[in-house]
Specification:
alpha/beta, five-stranded mixed sheet, about 50% helix, about 10% strand, elongated
Length: about 260
């Protein structure tokens, strides 16, 4: 009996020792050692206990996006039912639900405008006024700023006008551009793609490859090009006939405004 008790005690100690063995020592039996094959019945992967999710006792709140989707789905279902079965009760149910949705949208719209009023940095109409008085003041200020930029244009930029004596639109645009250039004191190089005379520009010179060397497309005429003497780049201003105000606005945007600043 004493021998059996001693053997049981040894087994318990061995089991306890094996349980506390480091995981790396246990996994060493699963190494790729051909001298001691383990057989197909030897499992090398240990089942790790799954962690239980924390129990809060509360259902997580539904997201705002989910609530919107639920509301939209409910409205579509009630509307579909009212269309398929247009009873007074079904139509009334649809109208009442639609009224609730519209009321929510109206509340948002009202809160939106109040937030804009309270935060000038969020009010786009301060950059682009829509009211009659504010818009008139903005237009006057903008025109003065634009005219000042056009007066300084020759310090860095030059204008190239491409036309043709065979282009009906050039007969209209040529004199218009002449008046615009005189009004703002701008120098313009008029170039005839065919070598013929241009309406309003008796001093026009023949193309002779000038446009191609500058990378200018002469496929659409008339063409007005802005040449940047600093970067040596030709920037199209307009193709076809455009009004004087449009020419001024485009030149101002291309030379005095960063991309995206007007929006």
């Amino acid at each position: 009996m004493k021998t059996i008790s001693a053997l049981l005690l040894v087994c318990v100690l061995l089991l306890t020792s094996a349980a506390s063995t480091d995981a790396r020592e246990w996994r060493s039996w699963c190494g790729a050692d051909a001298s001691r094959p383990l057989g197909w019945h030897f499992y090398c992967d240990r089942d790790e206990p799954e962690e239980e999710a924390p129990r809060t006792g509360q259902t997580p709140p539904e997201s705002a996006q989910k609530r919107i989707q639920t509301m939209r789905k409910a409205l579509e279902d009630v509307r579909a039912k009212a269309i398929i079965e247009p009873t007074p009760g079904n139509v009334t149910a649809y109208l009442r639900l639609q009224q609730r949705v519209l009321q929510s949208a109206a509340a948002f719209s009202d809160a939106f405008r109040r937030a804009v009023w309270a935060n000038p940095d969020l009010d786009y109409t301060l950059r682009r006024p829509v009211g009659a008085l504010a818009k008139r003041l903005w237009t006057e200020e903008r025109r003065a700023e634009r005219d000042a930029a056009l007066a300084r244009l020759g310090e860095r930029y030059g204008l190239i006008y491409l036309g043709s004596d065979k282009c009906p639109a050039c007969r209209v645009f040529g004199p218009l551009l002449r008046a615009f250039a005189l009004r703002h004191g701008l120098e313009v190089l008029a170039v005839s793609t065919t070598g013929g005379s241009l309406e309003g520009w008796p001093e026009a010179v023949a193309d002779r490859g000038r446009a191609a060397r500058l990378g200018i497309r002469a496929s659409v005429l008339p063409a007005l090009i802005l040449y940047d003497a600093k970067t040596k780049r030709a920037v199209p201003v307009s193709y076809g006939v455009v009004a004087e105000d449009q020419i001024a606005d485009r030149i101002f945007a291309l030379t005095a405004r960063e991309v995206g600043s007007d929006y």
